[in-house]
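Entry type: protein chain
Record version: 2
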Amino acid sequence: MINFKNIQTEIDASYLYKVLADHEEDATVANVFLQMSEIEQGHAMAFMRINNLDTMTLPPPSLRARILHKIGKIFGYDFILGVLMDTEKNISLSVINSRKNVNAERSLSDTAHVTILQNICAAHPNVSGNYLARFEKRHRSIGGNALRAAVLGGNDGLVSNFSLVMGIAGAAGAQNTVLLTGLAGLLAGSLSMALGEWISVTSSKELFENQMQLELEELENNPDGEEWELALIYQSKGIPEEQALKMAKEVISNKDHAHEVLIKEELGINKEDLEGSPMEAAVASFVLFAVGAVIPVIPFFFIGGTKAIILSTILSGFGLFIIGASITLYTGKSMWHSGLRQVLFGLAAAAITFGIGRLIGASVMG
């Protein structure tokens, strides 16, 4: 049986790496992406030859890949790199777990898609460790986080307020009652999300800043001890003792650089992690939650009763499908499967609250 999914995955990866190369300003990094594109295309052709398919007519990129390209124009092309790396890591992890389940030995190919970028960089004379760090920084800081936050925030708002609205509607609430409840749920949920995000970002920054200050005091008061610790860290990474000691001494000789290296190596903190604004995060959370929460409320601005309930359910179902389908941008799974699954879960939650509301309403009404 021909596995068209594997072929399409490789074609999409080749297409997206080519997109990255076309929009990369640094010539060396662009060359890396081009080589990645060629490798992925080679994988696709190999799959086609195995299945006796004509390699002269490769299938076009999928709708998912084309959508990712368009989203990259909005969120930045580093977003595409993050999605690719996430996808490849998930695939590698799945392969490794499958081998463990059948007690099979691991193969170098299990993690090839994850490590191949680093292998190319290491083999290229013009690519240094700074470039590798740059790739990892992109992956951590972008990696689809903006769109992922939008999807999850919208989902939280939609599901929670849809369930709330259906619960009140099930209790035979009048149009104005349902509308006011829905708006109250929208505001309460949005404010709660915003406050939670503000506290989370602020607390993290304060914790990191406190740890960084402690590390600075240790560096000033006991530079020899910090040099020794740094050398041990390098040795734990497989660097020979003599070389590790030399590297640590060079780092400690520059206090500002030493502080940056120490907080990264000892604490796992990057200065870029502290650049996020708590207020920006709070506003974004408020807006994302509100966008999802307003969908089930819209019909009750104009009509009430059964018609409003049906229309609210249709709009919410459509929104749930869009959210579920959006998740496949990261997972690579079937858009229809994820979308319909999201609709099923969302409608189930709303149906339960509607039923509870109907029971409570009947009990109160006597």
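Comment: The first helix runs from residue 4 to 22.
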